[in-house]
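TASK: fixed-backbone design
INPUT:
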């Protein structure tokens, strides 16, 4: 992609109300635009990162579920049946203007904050036989929650992206088996995104879903909202809300701030009972279906990555989610820049080409702000010196290499 054609450019100014690093840097570098508190446009650079995160999630989810797409707007009846129309305090309810004027009490919809209340009657409606279980479906979609505090950029929004997976089983044992499989797959996802070592599974309250623990995937992050207590002997981590007696003070516990990037819940029969969802077993007996639900905050992840991976010059993206693999800077519109762009693109490397007429200093500053892992500079001087200048975002020294060696260099980063 040529930067001159991108339609938006790094803003460099900090929004006045921006407190969180991810909000400041993502807006300055031209990844997102704040429409209102907690609601963002994903600009071309930002959408590329979001897509990369979601495609990693999708690749792993496809091993354990089938992708579908449920709507954001749902009938309030579903939420009435589950009882959650009254109990979810962050629920956005919607009605059409013409229906409001008629003051019809049934002219109400829900902008989904999550989808248990949509997916349960959906699967129930197909009346699967006991032989069809387990059933697992997921989608990656926009959610709405009227969060009272939306101060941390992409980490807490009123409109945000989530991957949510739902599973249906004939017994608790099968749910447990599947639940453990999801844990494993989640760890693979966070590993590939670049936060594997810094993400722990923490025991947390099951909320109004389950009396059992739920499990949160908590990533070490100074600006995260959660406090985690990690038992250094057993390796078991607890969210502060369920920490064992005395863990406040015990030297056996490491305490750190973290951001919740995923949360999984053994729902049991909570929703199947609410919707009267039973299956008929092989002996003809009716039994409630056992369910689980499993979320990952894909847009929150983008914010968490920036909180973790930045320096005083800008963002330092982990390789697998960087908007582009290479940031190409061209100072005198040389033919070489065109050649390099084509060479890399042909080899499947995605290149952001800064072809704008600006000073070298400004282009370098933008490259640091945007944070792609490799910067390549082509200028008449680099060509005189034997080729092109390459520099990694997380290193300070640059070096000159010949164009012939470029592909090897890029592949080995
Ligand atoms: P939190 O405890 O942070 O409010 P939650 O437990 O309500 O989150 P879930 O319903 O489990 O969240 O949603 C699944 C995932 O979606 C969370 O783990 C988180 O990563 C993400 N998420 C939840 N709320 C938001 C939000 N307001 N903005 C951005 N991402 C969110
Ligand atoms: Mg949660």
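OUTPUT:
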């Amino acid at each position: 992609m040529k930067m001159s054609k991108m339609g938006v450019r790094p803003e460099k100014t900090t929004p006045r109300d921006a407190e969180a690093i991810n909000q400041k840097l993502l807006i300055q570098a031209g990844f997102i635009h704040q429409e209102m508190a907690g609601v963002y446009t994903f600009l071309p650079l930002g959408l590329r990162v979001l897509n990369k995160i979601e495609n990693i999630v999708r690749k792993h989810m496809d091993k354990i579920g089938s992708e579908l797409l449920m709507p954001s707007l749902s009938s309030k009846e579903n939420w009435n049946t589950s009882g959650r129309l009254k109990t979810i305090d962050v629920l956005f309810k919607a009605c059409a203007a013409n229906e409001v004027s008629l003051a019809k009490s049934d002219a109400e919809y829900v902008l989904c904050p999550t989808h248990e209340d949509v997916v349960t009657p959906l699967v129930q409606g197909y009346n699967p036989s006991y032989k069809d279980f387990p059933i697992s479906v997921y989608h990656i979609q926009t959610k709405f929650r009227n969060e009272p505090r939306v101060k941390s950029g992409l980490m807490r929004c009123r409109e945000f992206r989530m991957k949510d997976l739902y599973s249906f089983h004939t017994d608790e044992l099968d749910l447990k088996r599947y639940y453990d499989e999801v844990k494993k797959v989640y760890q693979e996802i966070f590993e590939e995104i670049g936060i594997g070592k810094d993400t722990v599974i923490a025991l947390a309250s099951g909320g109004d879903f389950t009396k059992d623990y739920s499990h949160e995937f908590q990533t070490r992050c100074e600006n995260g909202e959660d406090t985690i207590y990690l038992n250094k002997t057993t390796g078991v981590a607890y969210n502060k809300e369920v920490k064992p007696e005395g863990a406040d003070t015990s030297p056996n516990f490491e305490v750190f701030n973290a951001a919740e990037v995923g949360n999984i819940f053994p729902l049991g029969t909570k929703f199947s009972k609410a919707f009267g969802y039973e299956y008929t077993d092989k002996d003809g007996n009716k039994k409630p279906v056992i369910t689980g639900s499993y979320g990952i905050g894909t847009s929150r992840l983008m914010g968490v990555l920036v909180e973790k991976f930045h320096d005083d010059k800008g963002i330092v993206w982990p390789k697998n989610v960087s908007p582009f693999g290479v940031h190409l800077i061209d100072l005198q519109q040389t033919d070489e820049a065109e050649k390099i762009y084509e060479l890399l693109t042909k080899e499947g490397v995605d290149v952001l080409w800064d072809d704008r007429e600006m000073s070298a200093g400004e282009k370098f500053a933008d490259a640091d702000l945007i944070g792609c892992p490799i910067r390549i500079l082509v200028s008449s001087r680099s060509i005189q010196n034997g080729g092109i200048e390459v520099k990694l975002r997380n290193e300070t020294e640059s070096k000159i290499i010949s164009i012939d060696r470029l592909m090897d260099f890029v592949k080995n980063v």
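COMMENT: The pocket of magnesium ion (ligand 2) is lined by residues 216, 260, 263 (CB under 6 Å).
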